[in-house]
Amino acid sequence: MAKVINELSLTKELIKIPSVTPIDGGAIALVARHLKSLGFKCTMLEFKDKNTPTIKNLYARIGKTSPNFCFAGHTDVVPAGNIKAWDVGPFSGVVKNGKIYGRGTSDMKGGIACFIAAVSEFLNDKKKFKGSISFIITGDEESVAINGTKKVVDYLKKKKEKIDFCLVGEPSNRKVMGQMMKIGRRGSITTYVTLSGTQGHVAYPHEACNPSTPLIKILDKLKSMVLDKGNANFQPSNLEITKMATDSNADNVIPSTASATFNIRFNNKHSYASLKKKISSVTQSIANKYKCKANIEYSETGVAFITKPGKTIQLMSKVIKQITNKTPVLSTTGGTSDARFIKDIAPCVEFGLVGNTMHKVNECVAVSDLKKLKKIYYKILESYFH
Questions:
Q1: Is 300 marked active-site?
Q2: What is the mean pLDDT of the chain?
Q3: Does 141 participate in catalysis according to the annotation?
């Protein structure tokens, strides 16, 4: 009998590694060790940019023929926060009252453990299946995501490695298992605006040029815009202001600069270029009116995309309904994920654990949900390779 891996035991192993982004701590090596024991060929991929730490990633595959079904996820986690506020150690993997606690249990070390446990059972039961199974595991999802999946995808393109479908194990359910499957995501653009005026005394405003005034008007106009009303697949795009500041520390001094940061989560009615053009037009027009100089910088962290429901998504929905007694809603809500990179080489969806405690103190998942998810992944493989 081939090796069968237990999802709870592996979740505990992973949680005990404090792989707070960008630190790996041996998490990728642990995943590779388990996959090698199942017969996977593992390729360790390390990437580094100037002023960024080296990030460890993994591409693993068993089988040489098509179709290639891929599981994707990340071992890096966000910081634990106030450790004293945790009921248990954030890297202890303690099981209490039917739940396993620790940073990354839901986002998404528990999902990775369920991937591997399901594959181990599948390989034990189906020793001669037609096709391949692969894994993309990154250590750079929770941070800037420069040296993780994005570069793994570039590597796979160069190697002409074909993936026929990818399942990203992000915690897609908010409250209960089976609630939601993500078939796409909105795009994200962050804008950094700095207006330069002339410093002066608040009692003599005519001798100064206050950049705060046009900045407020710019933000008000942009925030008041109805970008769109959404569509059948996406909710309306929204702009949220996240930071505002001036360079003055005195209450009686008109600042020389005023800055703001805001983010737009946009649907497929917009593009990075179209939003950049709109923002620049409003900003420059108002800044010129008030005789201020505007400096605008942009950061694109994702484009809007959708995977059209087809045969594989239908079989996944059927399996989820079979095990959870719920038909998952096909959604594009939420933030960004590494699916935004993988969609360039393969159709992909997200389905994982319940994520209502992710990034919070006392992050946890029900042990019963780990078992359900492992079973769902197993049945998906069984149906896909039938």
A1: no
A2: 96
A3: yes
